[in-house]
């Protein structure tokens, strides 16, 4: 079968993106994507075309028990190692299995990114247990971050809109193995944010999100509670 043929690639990509391609056929197409640029580009195009439709659907948060079961099943199935421990107390977050639970979404996010160039680095930020914030906010503090292969662009997306109180904002930080966090600026609580910096991954062991005043941290360091943390693998 010639997967470089545009008509065939487009038909398969449409069925894949719509979810009508299932079972072994779906798994076979996923295995073919890395080696077939035409097919990969067609999937990216269909994902980009359908993605805006998701914004019209109101998010529904699962029950805590459902989320925990999903975390356990996906983490075991994917066989992912536990996140690295590092930057002081923050990197010992208790939501380690959250990274496994969200890995499928993180891998799917890669399909939205351009194929040429180095592969992006995907980071899952999970709730930071013990953060002194309303329980509803902490429960929804889950993000997926994608850093471009050249380390110059970071795209951050919350998995659900966060109920941040008026007069407060979310700030993104890069956490080094040693030394002070580096602010990457304010990010939205209800939509995708993009950050452009040189060498985003240089000396970065993890990313974190804190709740700060509306104009950002007045000190250049986190002043409010840290609600989500995600380690950079590798």
Automatic annotation (TrEMBL):
Source organism of the structure: Ideonella livida
MF GO annotations: sigma factor antagonist activity
Protein name: Anti-sigma K factor RskA C-terminal domain-containing protein
One term under GO cellular component: plasma membrane
Boundaries of every Anti-sigma K factor RskA C-terminal domain copy: 102-226
InterPro entries cross-referenced by the UniProt entry: Anti-sigma-K/W_factor, RskA_C
GO biological process per UniProt: regulation of translation
PANTHER family: ANTI-SIGMA-K FACTOR RSKA
């Amino acid at each position: 079968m010639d997967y470089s043929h545009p008509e065939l690639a487009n038909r398969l990509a449409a069925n894949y993106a719509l979810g009508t391609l299932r079972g072994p056929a779906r798994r076979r197409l996923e295995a073919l994507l890395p080696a077939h640029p035409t097919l990969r580009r067609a999937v990216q195009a269909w994902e980009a075309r359908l993605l805006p439709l998701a914004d019209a659907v109101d998010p529904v948060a699962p029950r805590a028990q459902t989320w925990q079961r999903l975390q356990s099943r996906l983490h075991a199935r994917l066989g992912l190692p536990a996140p690295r421990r590092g930057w002081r107390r923050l990197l010992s977050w208790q939501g380690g299995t959250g990274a496994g639970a969200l890995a499928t979404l993180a891998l799917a996010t890669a399909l939205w990114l351009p194929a040429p160039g180095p592969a992006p680095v995907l980071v899952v930020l999970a709730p930071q247990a013990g953060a002194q914030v309303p329980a509803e906010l902490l429960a929804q503090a889950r993000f997926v971050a994608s850093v471009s292969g050249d380390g110059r662009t970071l795209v951050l997306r919350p998995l659900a809109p966060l109920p941040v109180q008026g007069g407060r904002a979310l700030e993104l930080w890069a956490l080094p193995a040693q030394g002070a966090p580096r602010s990457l600026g304010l990010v939205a609580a209800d939509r995708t944010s993009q950050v452009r910096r040189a060498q985003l991954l240089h000396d970065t062991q993890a990313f974190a999100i804190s709740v700060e005043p509306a104009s950002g941290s007045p000190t250049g360091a986190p002043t409010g509670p840290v609600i989500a943390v995600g380690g950079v693998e590798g």
